[in-house]
Amino acid sequence: MLEIKGNDFVLNGEKFNIYSGAVHYFRSLPEYWEDILTKLKLCGFNTVETYVCWNLHEKKEGEFDFSGGLDIARFIKTAQKVGLYCIVRPGPYICAEWDFGGLPAWLLKDRNMRIRCMYKPYTDAVERYYKALFDEIAPLQLKNGGNIIAMQIENEYGSYGNDKNYLAFIKDLMLRCGCTEFMFTSDGPEDNMLSGGMLEGVPAVVNFGSRVGSAFKKLREYQPEGPLMCGEFWNGWFDRWDEKEKHHQRPAFEVVYELKEFLKHDASFNFYMFHGGTNFGFNSGANCYGEYQPTITSYDYDVLLNEWGGYTDKYHAVRKVLLEHQGIEPAELPPEPERQSVGKVALTEYAGVLENLENIGTKIESVTAESMEYFGQNSGLILYHHKLKGNYSGKLFLDGLGDRAHVFINKELKGIIYRNDKEHAVSIGELSGENDIDILVEDMGRINYGPDMLDRKGVSGIRINLQQLSNFEIYLLPLDNLQKLEFTASKKEAPVFMRGKFNAEKNKTCFVHLAGFSKGYVFVNGFNLGRYWKVGPQKSLHIPGALLKDGENEIIVLELDRTVSDTVHITSEHDIGQHKKKGIFG
Predict the structure, then answer these.
(1) Does 355 participate in catalysis according to the annotation?
(2) pLDDT at 581 over 50
(3) What kind and span of H or E run contains 271?
(4) Where are any strands of DSSP class E within 400-524?
(5) Which of 124, 255, 429, 530 is deepest in the core (most CB within 10 A)?
(6) Residue 61: active-site member
(7) What per-residue confidence (pLDDT) applies to 220?
(8) Choosing from 49, 97, 154, 232, which is the catalytic residue?
(9) Tens-place pLDDT, residues 508-544
(10) CB 120 within 8 A of CB 169
(11) Are strands 182-187 and 204-208 parallel, antiparallel or unpaired?
């Protein structure tokens, strides 16, 4: 097993440096796991690290799924097959720019919910999840002939809280569930973070993107002995939806400089990320620093393997240094993923969202307007319908808006409200008699970091001026099955589903470009590729070749705002704004 002797890691009786790269099984498809992990091994790494996404494994409370793309055991076994050890970071909180930091949305049905502390309804849920997870991963530990050599206790806890009883509970729970391998904590190299996140008797690692010597010096103030390790070396960075945002890029020479500093310190490290992948569906999270900052669909991260598994200059530069340092002769690399260009695809069929509520939604009657979590919905859209009777004027207000709402009166769009707007209200003019109020709210990702994580979606109340409205028909629209949509050839105004067909080759990757579209989602053969938004920086969405069929394929675009086009372009090239962000790592 992995142990500490002096200032070194020792594995099976020999000194061992952990050269790890992060790969999230849930950000790619199983068809690509072996290819990605093989490229990690051939780059000179000896270990893969992965988070575990609780929210996908337990979408419904008490119901667990470890199949298909969630088969973490298969992922870990594949890593062992190609010759890699594995570090597992089971959370329960993972951050990762992932919806709610990997916590399941149904936790938020509890109005008193408190997370990442000794709040019993939360810890009871964590305990149930850990027992199910460890049934999958405990047999894969090194002691049992597997390749798992270490597991993390919680995740960067000092950035959130200082409940040491909670950290001790997580450690004890991992032991009770069968963890036999090395355990550690990870935090930023700052006093507050290390003070809050370290646990007595448990080795600590630090996470950072630059200034190796300074970061390890801070760690030594709290941990005078033991091996030096960077649990997350940020060799790239993520992007957010914003018209001023450009794709983060970090040049290879900067990464190589920091890598050589690690090697000078005889340190261990984990490149976060090695392969970033994609935030498919509704899985991307958000940050909140004064205002809401949703993460884009691409998790390319500007790291060693790009979003679709292709090599970068950074890959080759890092590989050269790592192989030379270890005296390893470079082996032949697997080929780049095959890509294809399809060309223009006409969207010729239309299905209005408001006309298809009964077909794709679940209707619930409720006295009050509540968040989607209250009704058991994890993600997607939610529509609040109210029949307004009487004489009214003034403004309609949306309380607790998360995140973006379209307000309709008698099916006419009156305004779009975003949670970053100064006022969450629209003017209703003068109304009398009976009027239909429809409010369609989009979930754009729950906050995954910091003090604002109890981030419920939909609304908490709807009012005209100071008067609370009551008695709603509420439609839950998770958009997980679009088969019952009723399409016609007649064009319709947004929000609208638009469908087309295209011919392609299976297993060849491509990208759908949304020029002329405003905001929405793209589905290919029923699979939700994720969000698009004209504000950028991302202008195209990744279509993994494994989703495609030889011959005819289906594409559905859900346009929420407005489109001046009924044609998308599918090409071999990714479109994401390129710009070097300064001041992030230096």
Answers:
(1) no
(2) no
(3) strand 268-275
(4) 404-409, 412-418, 425-431, 434-442, 461-464, 467-468, 472-477, 496-504, 510-513, 519-524
(5) 255
(6) no
(7) 98
(8) 232
(9) 999 999 999 999 999 999 999 999 999 999 999 999 9
(10) no
(11) parallel
